[in-house]
Every structure is written in C-alpha cells, then in structure tokens.
C-alpha cells in the first residue's frame, strides 16, 4: 500500500501554488478573455453591460432571444422526465433499474415504451450540452438566427421524444432526429465561425 507523506517544504510549495500562482493565472486568463471580447464590434452595439461579474463585457440586446431558446431546453428535459416516469410507473420497473429487461420488454408494451422513453431521455442528455453550448456561442454573433435554430432544436427534440415513445417505437424518432439534427449542425458551424471571428479580430 502506497503511503503518502508530507514535508514542510511540500506544504510550503502547495501553499504558494494555491494562494499565489493559481489566482495569478486565473486573473491573467480573465484579463485576456475580456480584452479579446471587448475588441469585437458585435459586442458593442445595442448592448447591456454585465456589471455584477468580476469582469464586464457587452452583448447585443437580441442575445435575450438566445437565452430564451437555451432556457426552453431545460423544460424539454422536464418533459422527458415526466414521460419516462409515466412509463416506468405503467411498466412496474422499479428503481434503480435503468431499463426493463429484454424479456419484460417483449412481453409488456409498457415496458417496451419505458425503454424507448429512457433511451430518448439519455440521447437528449447526451446532446444537451453540445447543442446549448453551440447556441450560446453562435448567438454572440448571430443572435436572432441562433435563437430560431435553438427553438427549432428544442421542438425537434420534443418530436423525437413523442415519436420514439409512440407505437412506431424507434422508427418514430426519425423525423425529430433529422429536424433537430439539422438545427444542431447549423449551430455548431455558426459557433465555429463566431470563434474564428473572435480569434482573428483586431
């Protein structure tokens, strides 16, 4: 068994790192980010200043639509939870089992739909961070277009959920997948382009 020991020198070094070096690096990073963000013209037009943060940058008033679209994704998650809970109760699959067994799903339509609802929810949580992240980044340069695409993505995910848990099963998710997938891809491209603009701005 590995035994860890500490010495006064090691403790002193750790103290310097945590009290001096890390705050210095964090301050330098924030300073550079603030400098780069404020140098981009799109942040200075029709703006609201976020003054309650350790640093301030300016965003378009239209960015509120982006925030609203991002917020809609949270309610879609609540809808997933309700849908999954409904079929869990109907199927009798007890916690902490994540899915009904193959045998249960073959015999009980409710257990099969529970598996579909659970898989739809898992797919949603897998996609949530990249989609909302792309939305928030792309919205800095394309606020209205990004907000529309974000709302489209959320709507597509609802269609995906109800299609997956319909009598069509996995085949029912196709339309929602294409619908939300197209919006997601567009947001990722726009986010990449926005990142490029920030990096190359003078």
Summarize the structure.
By secondary structure, the chain is mainly alpha-helical. It has six helices and two strands, in the order αββααααα.
What is the straight-line distance between the termini? 56 Å
Strand order of the largest sheet: 1-2
Q: What form results from the Cα inertia axes?
A: elongated
Name the helicity range. over 70%
The largest sheet is:
2 strands, antiparallel
Nearest-integer average pLDDT: 79
- At CATH level 2, the architecture of the domain at 62-200 is Up-down Bundle
- The H-level CATH homologous superfamily of the domain at 62-200, spelled out, is Membrane associated eicosanoid/glutathione metabolism-like domain
CATH class of the domain at 62-200: Mainly Alpha
- Give the quaternary arrangement of the chains: single chain
What's the CATH topology name of the domain at 62-200?
Four Helix Bundle (Hemerythrin (Met), subunit A)
Poorly predicted runs are 1-7, 36-53
GO molecular function, one term: glutathione peroxidase activity
Keywords: Membrane, Transmembrane, Transmembrane helix
Organism: Trichoderma gamsii
Protein name: MAPEG family protein
